[in-house]
Design brief:
Chain lengths: 509, 478
């Protein structure tokens, strides 16, 4: 936990209300997000029990599996879920926009919007990943055939789960993580994983402190767990007996009794899910009320790019994603994740002064006032004269940069400032920093108005840089070197259904 | 026990013989701190070049590349050397002084037939060409995905590195690849040996850098299954102080007498602990930083003279022979600021990552767990403490807040256990002294060490080689 977050948590305790640790929203929130609350059955690995899903707060759809131990019922459930999720995702495959590529010599097209799934907690993302794995390899023929939409659903769920790993992507988000990234509460990180208490810390009902509202929400009778795990008390006292009644009824020959038992289960599970459903939309309203960060739009555009590519791949009958990454795929993926993580961290700091403040504490940035500015300074010591304005910034932040360091200001990312002098001022712990500027001022020897910080301007300089680095190159899969086992002998992606260890034959699937 | 020199030479000869035979695609050499790793690399490069082999050298940082070039060009002035580098690289003095070195940004610029040296990151940008041999330096610092990107450039390779140092790391946390033999988060050597278990693995047995006082602590703490010994005997080296010298620069805070006492103890025994009262602090703990600066300055002002097998008459310990090591960059920056404007301004202050491979007479170490409320994986990483406490030829002074053992007890390891992975999960065993150790039983790979199992560990399977996490490593020093 960073120093500022620790401070905000202490303030939250004192104030009885969550404190913001971000001034802008760093995630995209769709106009039509799909809220998705899965529940699983205790004791069975990722066996779906129920899901409440929908894009309209007033019209949640409930799907249940009356007996999760029955694999047939599980895949019936998958088919019903596909009927909701696939049209939702495919609904975005309509209007496109042209994006210039290859230095404007070519264009590609991407969809104007993309699907977004919101689950309550990180474990919900885990459910999406595992349910995707158990469905994407299912066969539509043979011994236990499923509907063609089931493996298709698996591909989409896997796609969403993979995107959720990518820092800065907003295609599949967990609400508790998103809220915790923007608010500090007066409780521990573990307690923040409970959606009910987290939302109540941030947005308590009128006339109640956040701390008290959060404590009330800890009662599973009032606020059942947001899943996928269920409350053991509910499992033992309510769910278990109701399932037993359903089992007995389904083995008997009274269809009316079976329907009644099914409805009873539905009502019980709706009771467990409805409070979370309400919390999800409350939490989303909190997130929507924050203004988006400047780079959120660009990151969502990347999501739309990836979504456009994947929907084309699926429409073209693409194979399911490989069960595990090969040596080259693993290295490539790690490289992409690291790049995304790095730029996401820097973009957040550039978008948000409160996050930049963390870096100021760590000596990676300072904020100060411009006290001197020489915008027309020309350096003529080289072959030809170049415009090199100098400014002096006075700051009360500690300045740990050695002279010669290159800095940038988030307000002028195209311009670099080289540290020339760092002089501590005697009174009041201030520091004078002289910077020599280059770039972002056109080609001439006169700086255009506004391109050089003016005297009196308050400005941030940081060593964090969004500079472009070319992506790494990797050998092809067929060229996997001997140090990594050589080229793979077979391809899971080419023929996933012929592998001995694929999901379709796993006994849990 | 044979003389340390003979034992070390025997290993080097065995390595060179393995290279000469060419019956394996790779040879791995493990080296404890200061065991002559660079000397071996230079020797191997000369032998391979003399045999007419096409050779490239892959190092991890530009600093390491320049070091290697300097050593190789000095040892073999007639050998043409190419230094492949980024476009904005300016050759350092060490490199410029050698006429046999050509610097270039592209393979075509550095000449045919020469030994080409570059960082792994630079080699990854070379798209074509294949050489008969590569020497991979600091291979344990290299992540396996970096090896994947450069491995097509060579047919055979010598991998040299220190298994006790910092493992490579990633900013991405993912269990996605756990258990895969090609997990990109693992070190290059781990992945290499998993796919090529028959490769010969040698170990250099003698540390020429560490004095006996350090070897007897560092070897059992960080190399419990292989160990090593010091190349010198107790009494071969000494650190002489001018005790009465004036205190000129005393940073505010630390008690000058306690500082003097710590420096004197370090000079006499090779180790000292400067303990601050227990307290939870922010990362840039001002008191601890001031203590680090004061200790280093005191060593300088006390006119320390290092007597060793290198200089029998003694050599002054100037600022270039002292280093301060920290866990975080901001801690180093704070200490550097304290030293500004003092005679200690040019003392090296850096993080463990950057101190890897470097050597000093005296080091001051800010303990990674000092003042912390929690013990995270980063701060528990035994390689970090190993690097920090194995950079010195004479003495090491550790600065820490009291309470580290309590912190270790209060934060048990909660790493998830993965089943069915190639690497068994660490388990806790108790040594004869009662100290708790987490060890990772693995197949024995070290063939040059018959005495490898000579540890006081209660192991029912053969001891492994590395990748153990020893929380008590903190206790060994604190």
């Amino acid at each position: 936990m960073s120093t500022l977050t620790a401070l905000a948590k202490a303030q939250a305790v004192a104030a009885g209300r969550a404190q913001p640790i971000a001034t802008v929203r760093h995630a995209h929130i769709s106009d039509m997000p799909l809220v998705f609350i899965p529940l699983t059955m205790a004791g069975e690995a990722n066996a779906p029990l129920a899901v409440m899903v929908g894009t309209d707060e007033d019209r949640p759809e409930l799907l249940i599996v009356p007996q999760p131990r029955d694999r047939g019922l599980r895949f019936d459930f998958a088919a019903r879920l596909a009927e909701i999720l696939l049209p939702y995702a495919e609904g975005f495959c309509s209007a496109t926009e042209a994006v210039p590529t290859d230095r404007k010599r070519d264009v590609r097209y991407r969809y104007l919007d993309a699907p977004q799934i919101i689950v309550p907690a990180p474990a919900g993302i885990g459910f999406v990943r595992l349910f995707g794995r158990s469905t994407r390899f299912r066969r539509t023929d043979g011994d236990y055939p499923v509907l063609p939409t089931v493996p298709l659903l698996g591909r989409w769920l896997t796609f969403f789960a993979d995107r959720a790993e990518q820092p800065g992507s907003s295609m599949l988000l967990s609400l508790t993580e998103m809220l915790s990234a923007h608010w500090a509460t007066g409780q521990s990180g573990h307690e923040d994983a409970h959606l009910g208490s987290l939302v109540n810390w941030i947005a308590p009902p009128p006339g109640m402190s956040g701390a008290k509202a959060a404590r009330l929400a800890e009662d599973p009778e009032v606020c059942p767990p947001a899943g996928p795990a269920t409350d053991p008390g509910f499992d033992n006292d309510v769910l278990g007996p109701a399932m037993e009644i359903y089992r007995a009824a389904s083995e008997g020959d009274d269809p009316e009794a079976e329907r009644a038992a099914y409805r009873e289960l539905e009502d019980l599970l709706r009771g467990q899910l409805a409070p979370t459903w309400e919390l999800m939309w409350r939490g989303l309203r909190v997130m929507r009320s924050m203004p988006p960060g400047a780079s959120v739009e660009a990151r969502w555009a990347q999501d739309r790019d990836v979504f456009s590519d994947f929907s084309l791949y699926v429409q073209g009958g693409g194979a399911p994603q490989a069960r595990r990454d090969g040596a080259v795929a693993a290295a490539t993926r790690l490289h992409k994740l690291e790049r995304a993580g790095q730029s996401y961290a820097i973009e957040r700091a550039f978008d948000d002064p409160l996050i930049m403040a963390e870096h100021r504490l760590g000596g990676e940035a300072f904020v100060g006032e411009v006290t001197l500015s020489k915008p027309d300074r020309v350096d003529d010591t080289g072959k030809r004269p170049v415009l090199r304005p100098r400014i002096q910034v006075v700051t009360t932040d500690p300045v740990l940069f050695p002279e010669g360091t290159t800095l940038v200001s988030p307000s002028k990312p195209q311009q670099k400032g080289r540290v020339i002098f760092v002089t501590p001022v005697e009174d009041g712990g201030k520091t004078e920093v002289v910077l020599e500027l280059s770039g972002g001022m056109g080609r001439g020897l006169r700086a255009p108005a506004g391109s050089v910080p003016e005297v009196g301007e308050r400005i941030t300089y940081t060593s964090l840089s969004l500079g472009y680095a070319p992506p790494g190159t990797f050998p092809s899969r067929e060229e996997t070197p001997w140090t990594h086992g050589g080229p793979p002998q077979y391809s899971i992606a080419d023929d996933p259904l012929d592998q001995g260890d694929h999901a379709a034959t796993e006994d849990w699937s | 026990m044979s003389a340390p020199g003979a034992a070390a030479n025997a290993v080097v000869d065995a390595v060179l013989a393995d290279l000469g035979k060419g019956s394996h695609r790779g040879v791995v050499v493990d080296s404890p701190p200061g065991a002559g790793k660079s000397t071996l690399v230079v020797k191997a490069a000369q032998v391979l070049a003399a045999a007419g082999e096409q050779l490239i050298v892959i190092a991890q940082t530009n600093e390491q590349v320049d070091d290697l070039i300097d050593r190789l060009a000095t040892a073999a002035p007639d050998l043409p050397i190419g230094r492949l580098s980024a476009g904005d690289y300016r050759a350092s003095e060490r490199v410029q002084q050698h006429r046999s070195v050509t610097v270039g940004a592209k393979i075509g610029d550095v000449g045919q037939g020469s030994v080409i040296i570059a960082t792994a990151a630079k080699w990854a940008t070379v798209a074509d060409g294949s050489w008969a041999w590569a020497i991979v330096d600091e291979a344990y610092q290299m992540r396996s995905d970096a090896l994947l990107r450069v491995a097509s450039r060579f047919s055979r390779a010598l991998f040299v590195g220190d298994p006790g140092q910092l493992d490579p790391f990633s900013t991405v946390e993912s269990a996605r690849w756990t258990g895969l033999t090609w997990d990109p988060m693992l070190s290059a050597v781990s992945v290499l040996l998993r796919h090529n278990p028959d490769l010969p693995v040698h170990r250099l047995p003698v540390s020429w850098r560490l004095p006996p006082s350090a070897a007897e602590v560092v070897a059992p703490a960080f190399y419990p299954f292989t160990g090593f010994r010091a190349g010198t005997e107790p009494g071969d080296r000494s650190l002489v102080l001018d005790v009465g010298s004036a205190r000129v620069h005393v940073p505010e805070g630390p008690d000058p007498d306690a500082v003097d006492a710590a420096v004197a103890q370090a000079a006499a025994t090779g180790w000292a602990l400067y303990e601050l009262p227990a307290r939870h602090t922010i990362r840039t703990d001002g008191e601890a930083a001031a203590a680090c600066a004061a200790l280093a300055l005191r060593v300088l002002e006390a006119g320390a003279v290092a007597v060793s097998e290198r200089s029998r008459d003694g050599a002054a310990v100037d600022a270039s022979r002292i280093a301060i090591g920290t866990a975080h960059r901001d801690q180093a920056a704070v200490i550097r600021n304290l030293l500004r404007g003092t005679p200690g301004e040019t003392i090296t202050v850096d993080t463990a990552n950057r101190l890897q491979g470097r050597e000093y007479d005296v080091t001051v170490v800010l303990h990674p767990l000092s003042g912390r409320r929690d013990a995270t994986a980063f701060h528990l990483e035994s390689g970090r403490l190993c690097v920090l406490t194995s950079r010195h030829r004479h003495a090491c002074i550790v600065v820490a807040r009291a309470g580290i053992p309590d912190l270790l007890d209060a934060h048990p390891s909660t790493d998830p256990v993965h089943l069915n992975t190639a690497e068994p999960a660490p388990r806790v065993v108790r040594s004869a002294s009662g100290a708790r150790r987490e060890v990772c039983p693995r197949e024995q790979r070290c063939r040059t060490t018959p005495e490898a199992g000579k540890q006081d560990l209660d192991l029912d399977s053969s001891p492994g080689r590395r990748e153990f996490r020893r929380r008590d490593a903190g206790r060994a020093i604190a």
